[in-house]
Amino acid sequence: MLRQYSQKKVYVGMSGGVDSSVAAALLKKRGFHVVGVFMKPWQPFGDDQFCLWKQDREDALRSAAVIGIPLLTWDFSKEYKHSVTDYMIREYRAGRTPNPDVMCNKEIKFGLFLKRALKEGADYIATGHYVRKRGTQLWQAKDNNKDQSYFLWTLTPGQLQYCLFPIGDYTKPEIRVMAEKFKLPNYAKKDSQGVCFIGPLDMKEFLAGYIKPKPGKIIHKDGRVIGTHDGVYYYTLGQRHGLNIGSGAGPFYVIRKDIKRNIIYVGDDRDAVAGEARIGKLNWLKDLKLPAAFGVKVRYRAPSVRATLTGRGVLKFVKPERAVTAGQSAVFYRGRRLLGGGVIL
Hints:
SH3 type barrels, Elongation Factor Tu (Ef-tu), domain 3, 3 domains, 6-stranded antiparallel β-barrel, globular
């Protein structure tokens, strides 16, 4: 096996976290010629005030030194700002709820990173995503709690022929055990939280810097005005917390948004459901004839539910689904196999 891979060069995206560090260590152990790459992201407020990426890069450098591989730093901050941040702000301003992690994977990790790595002589790229690859198809990871296939529906078989996902066959606890055995300094580092480039910042606080607050009414489904909000852009369907509603009956959930009139409508949890949704920007990893029935996830942590997609892009749920939100991803599965996905319109 070592001889098989000894001439194959793989560039590993190393974020400073334990997952990508173990991915690099496993590939080195398997005989690949491994080069680590830290992708510098865009950060709000500038580097002087928000230096999370600098600590992550230090962690990546220390891990690379232990593994015995070089670590390159590629500055993708301008591309992050243009392709991910600006997209996200546009979507919120239009009243939709975007998925910046999906866009980050599409434009940065499997766009810019893949193209540049191949140009520099790599045979493959690898990341620390929890997903399994068979040929040029993707399957859910062994660890159901960490599976990240939901965020990878934009990939194509053409891209996947150059991609490796070394940790998809392991659980998170197994990864931490391996990291300690490899003597990686970040074996106990906590998982990163929040958006791929924003980190732990509060999303509403971040958006307020780009979308001015615009006070409006919160109206109950029965027509009563029961509170106020800071701007319809900051809220998403199914949201419960962060609503400025006085004490009384509840809890209340966002069930509809009127963008033009800047009104949020609330009701019970059972009111925030839909029987169907329109899907656009479809991408398939496998050729399918529509209409077709399969499992679909409309949120990362949501369970897969049964639905049928028509040839006109109408997704019909077998049972009404909660918080089907414009701008989010609808991701399709057959069993544990990722078929593709699209954007909820």
